[in-house]
Amino acid sequence: MSKYEYAFDILEPNLSFLTGWKTEGHQEIIRARAKNGWIYDGWIPTKQFNDSITEIQLIFHRELPENE
Predict the structure, then answer these.
(1) What is the dihedral of CA 32, 6, 23, 55, to 10 degrees?
(2) Distance between CA atoms of 46 and 51, rounded to whole angstroms?
(3) Which of 18, 29, 34, 67 is the most buried (most CB within 10 A)?
(4) Helix (H, G, I), strand (E, B), or coil: what is residue 67?
(5) How confident is the model over 3-44, as pLDDT tens digits?
(6) 30 to each of 23, 25, 35, how far by Cα in Å?
(7) Pairing relation of β-strands 4-11 and 14-16?
């Protein structure tokens, strides 16, 4: 049976009242994690202010070797 470990990276979206919600740096984080064997699973909002998301977590997992 496979075992997994999980990792989380926090992003603070750039919120502008004119342009809306925009993340920055997420692609670099995903690519850097992938180089170390991590697989992107998704994201969840972790902070909210005045009905706007002010922080998200990117979620990653990777399979542990059989002997761990």
Answers:
(1) -140
(2) 13
(3) 29
(4) coil
(5) 999 999 998 776 655 556 666 678 899 999 999 999 999 999
(6) 13, 9, 9
(7) unpaired
